């Protein structure tokens, strides 16, 4: 067990949570904000940030004794304290974390998938404050942009203290390539702050990994040790989960080894000002939501259709509107979402469709069928919302 922090076996010591969250699973606690709450500010308030756990929330028993071990295929393993991490240059990175399971419920409606159901709000944007992993790894003699260590290490594994049933009660683990971990431009952080405050327990207190542009499953919370290893982590969530299979693969014929662990997330967008089926008496309506892409590819365009995808127009978008506490040292926001908004006239009924285009000209896929996969990850299909004028309700709704 790691020094100064424990992963409890039961759920009797969970932190307080905002009651407005929509709970998708109680134990482990998995919850997302309401759609309208998600887009009420560019930076997601901590209490409204989605929470995705695989076990009870760990407890820091003694922060002074807390140490992160750095070991594996390196010459000299060390242990670092919170003070050691805080003494390194501090960076603030504005990054959107998105769970690979975002919009899973919608995919499951088409054909059943396995996993916690999520609406379209299993993501959030925060200003993460902490040390760059590349600076931490310099403490064990690894210089920037290292491909491999002299003893053959090519991946950096992060190990937590929580107890996940998928790991048979063991801790959550994930890894990133050493090249990415030691690349200062990749902005991989060991974060101890979220939106300028000490990280909360739900989000990994005292220290978590943030891997911008990559599915959030790699941003390990409650970090206990870092291991330099030869191959990608063999942990459950790298080897037997969070992989993208084609629609033909089912639980009977799946061979996990045939696919790489998913890293970057693809371009994604969703309407958050409206529910999937919305009734209104208004003649004008606001369509607002988010668009985000992984790998540091910003959003180039957000396209909206109000006639089911026959004709399209571009939504106005805004990045960073009125951020109050954005500090000077913020390095970039290429890792973060854009929010968009547009006002349209409301006919008797309309089908609103949304798709985004990223800076690499990647476009969201039209149909969920083409990307359906048994674990229900990365549902990035065009988002549809049906609007009915309440005075003209179709027969089936009266
Ligand atoms: N130690 C640990 N880290 C973890 C997880 C976990 O269960 N345990 N869940 C991962 C997944 S799947 C996601 S989507 C994000 C969620 O981060 P959040 O709860 O801060 O939003 O954390 C990742 N890191
Ligand atoms: Mo996730």
From TrEMBL:
Q: Does the keyword Iron apply?
A: yes
Give cofactor(s), names only: Mo-molybdopterin
Q: Which GO terms describe its cellular component?
A: mitochondrion
CDD domains named in the record = eukary_SO_Moco
Annotated EC:
1.8.3.1
Region entry Disordered: which residue ranges?
1-27
Query: Domain Moybdenum cofactor oxidoreductase dimerisation, which positions?
Result: 260-387
Q: Name one Pfam family in it.
A: Mo-co_dimer
Q: In which pathway does it act?
A: Energy metabolism; sulfur metabolism; Sulfur metabolism
- Oxidoreductase molybdopterin-binding domain ranges (all copies): 54-237
Q: Which organism is it from?
A: Zostera marina
Q: Which domain of life is it from?
A: Eukaryota
The protein depicted here goes by the name: Sulfite oxidase
């Amino acid at each position: 067990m790691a020094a100064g922090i424990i992963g409890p076996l039961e759920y009797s010591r969970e932190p307080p949570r905002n009651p407005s969250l929509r709970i998708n699973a109680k134990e482990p606690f998995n919850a997302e904000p309401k759609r309208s709450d998600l887009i009420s500010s560019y930076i997601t308030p901590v209490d409204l940030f989605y929470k995705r756990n695989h076990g009870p929330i760990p407890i820091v028993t003694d922060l002074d004794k807390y140490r992160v071990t750095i070991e594996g295929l390196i010459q000299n393993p060390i242990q670092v304290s919170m003070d050691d991490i805080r003494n390194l240059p501090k960076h603030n990175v504005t990054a959107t974390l998105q769970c690979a399971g975002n919009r899973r419920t919608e995919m499951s409606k088409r054909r059943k998938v396995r996993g916690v159901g999520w609406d379209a709000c299993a993501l959030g944007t925060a200003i993460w404050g902490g040390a760059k992993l590349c600076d931490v790894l310099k403490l064990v003699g690894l210089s920037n942009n290292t491909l491999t260590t002299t003893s053959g290490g090519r991946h950096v594994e992060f190990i937590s203290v929580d107890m996940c049933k998928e790991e048979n009660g063991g801790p959550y683990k994930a890894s990133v390539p050493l090249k990415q971990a030691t690349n200062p431009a990749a902005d991989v952080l060991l974060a101890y702050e979220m939106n300028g405050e000490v990280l909360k327990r739900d989000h990994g207190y005292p220290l978590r990994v943030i891997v911008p542009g990559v599915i959030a499953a790699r941003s390990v919370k409650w970090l206990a040790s870092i291991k330099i290893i030869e191959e990608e982590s063999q942990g459950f969530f790298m080897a037997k989960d969070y992989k993208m299979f084609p629609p033909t693969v089912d639980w009977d014929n799946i061979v996990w080894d045939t696919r790489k662990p998913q890293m970057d997330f693809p371009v994604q967008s969703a309407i958050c000002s409206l529910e999937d089926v919305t009734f209104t008496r208004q003649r004008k309506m606001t369509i607002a939501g988010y668009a985000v892409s992984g790998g540091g590819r910003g959003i180039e365009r957000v396209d909206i259709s109000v006639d089911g995808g026959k004709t399209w127009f571009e939504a106005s978008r805004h990045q960073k509107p009125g951020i109050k506490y954005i500090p000077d040292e913020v390095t970039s926001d290429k890792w973060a979402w854009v929010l968009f908004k547009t006002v349209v006239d409301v006919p008797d009924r309309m089908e609103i469709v949304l798709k985004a285009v990223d800076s690499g000209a990647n476009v969201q896929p039209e149909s969920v069928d083409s990307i359906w996969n048994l674990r229900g990850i990365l549902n990035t299909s065009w988002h549809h919302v049906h609007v009915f004028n309440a005075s003209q309700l179709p027969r089936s709704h009266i």
